[in-house]
Design a protein that fits this description.
about 190 residues, alpha/beta, Rossmann fold, five-stranded mixed beta barrel, 6 strands, globular
């Protein structure tokens, strides 16, 4: 397992480094995503049939996995920004069922290495939910989210603290759901 931060550039760099170190039989992009359709609930598992990057016009095919647990299948949309509002998510819904930030970067490196790629995500925020904190404004030039920038926004919007606590709690629960799902899959 390797992580390097949000966004396709950081994910691509992590995948490239990992693939250079040792041979792999399969590459998985796993993590949190936002739901793009109202019927996709929080904590739902999404297994990608394909990954679409509308900013670059690329679409990546994914290798099949055989999950035994309940899940949703569909196209995962991979962008280089956090989908902040229900309106932004609605606009992305024409491309797929869930949105995230790393899969296209990982898929490109797997494709370059000739290794099968899979994408499994878990919904941390639904299509109808937005964020009071502007997480995109909290990112630095490399794309990493800086806690200091989030804290600065909290000084202006202290009511957003409850939202951050809820997101942290949901992320912990969703991460456990994702881990249990992956442990039960056949690749």
């Amino acid at each position: 397992m390797i992580a390097n931060g949000p966004g396709p550039s950081l994910a691509s760099a992590a995948a490239r480094e990992a693939l250079a170190r040792q041979p792999f039989h399969r590459v998985l992009s796993v993590g949190l995503c936002g739901g793009l359709h109202p019927q996709l609930p929080w904590n739902a598992i999404v297994v990608a049939d394909s990954v679409r990057a509308p900013e670059t016009g690329r679409e990546f095919r994914v290798a099949e996995i055989r999950p035994r647990s309940p899940h949703q299948r569909g196209t995962v949309v991979s962008v280089d920004r956090i989908a902040q509002t229900p309106g932004e998510k609605s606009g992305l819904a024409i491309h797929g069922i869930a949105v995230e930030m790393e899969a296209a970067g990982v898929a490109a490196e797997a494709e370059r290495a000739g290794i099968p790629f899979c994408c499994v995500k878990v919904v941390s925020d639904t299509a109808g939910e937005g964020f009071a904190i502007d997480f995109n404004a909290a990112r630095d030039q490399s794309g990493r989210v800086l806690v200091s920038r989030i804290l600065k926004q909290l000084l202006i919007k202290p009511q957003a603290l409850g939202e951050l606590i809820r997101l942290a709690r949901r992320s912990r629960i969703a991460s456990k759901t994702l881990g249990d799902f992956l442990a039960d899959c056949r690749y």
